[in-house]
Amino acid sequence: MSSRPATRTLVQFTGLKPTQRLLPANCRAYAQAAALPDTKPPVAVYGLDGTYASALYTAAAKTSSLDSASKSLAALADVFKKDTKLPLILNAPTLSPSDKSQIVQELQRHIGGQDKGDTVKNFLKTLADNNRLGILQGICEKFTTLMGAARGEMELTVTSAAKLDNKLLQRLETAVAKSDYSQGKKLKVVPKVNPDILGGLVVEVGDRTIDLSVSSKITKMNKLLTDTL
């Protein structure tokens, strides 16, 4: 599928300016508005899902609906947590326009009345039109990162081989908050589970990573043995 139509639709939705030559005069005016401090995403998020998350942030900021958009995407993120098969459905290559329409309606039902000005509703339609519903979960995660940065928060991502209880997470948050890693910012704990690390923890704070996983220790041990032999 060509990326050009998808880009053009995204421009129409947000007023972003991926390339000057694709934009007529009225769209360039929107792009200039998007560059204002109160509409520009506070940090850069990468990947295709990051591009769409930034586009949604800009569109919501322009309509003063960031809070409602944040609540809407949080509701969608909960749907992904409860329905592990949803990503497979959204990524199915056989989805017809009718299927996509029904999916968008179902997603809107989970959002409820939180979507001020139908910003997220229109965004979901844009994703469906561009065959990008499959990256919605990633968009939810990247949008959370953008909102956290806008609020002056720093993500504390804690990855473990099995789910951690809240008490342990709170202890980790307190310990990191007292350290230089937090840079004096409010922390937002994001727990993740990855059985591949085998045990231990991988703690990410801002651009720093503390790898205390069993898999990391095994890798280091294997390297030491290899170098020795």
Tell me the total number of β-strands: 4
**Morphology call:** globular
Distance between the termini: 51 Å
Order of helices and strands: HHHHHHHHEHEEEH
Give the helix/strand class.
alpha+beta
Q: If strands are numbered along the chain, what order do they take across the biggest sheet?
A: 2-1-3-4
Largest sheet: 4 strands, mixed
Which percent bin holds the helix content? 55-70%
Q: Could you tell me the strand content as a percent range?
A: 5-15%
Average predicted local confidence, pLDDT:
83
Radius of gyration: 20 Å
User: What is the number of helical segments per DSSP (H or I, 4+ residues)?
Assistant: 10
Instruction: State the low-pLDDT regions, or none.
Output: 17-24, 33-37
Explain what you see:
- There is one protein chain.
- The protein has 229 residues and is α+β, with helices and mostly antiparallel strands.
- The protein is 56% helix and 12% strand.
- It is built from ten helices and four strands, in the order ααααααααβαβββα.
- β1, α9 and β2 form a beta-alpha-beta unit.
Structure described in brief:
It is built from ten helices and four strands. The chain has helices at residues 3-14, 25-34, 47-62, 66-82, 86-90, 97-111, 119-129, 136-150, 166-177, 214-228; strands spanning 153-160, 186-193, 200-205, 208-213.
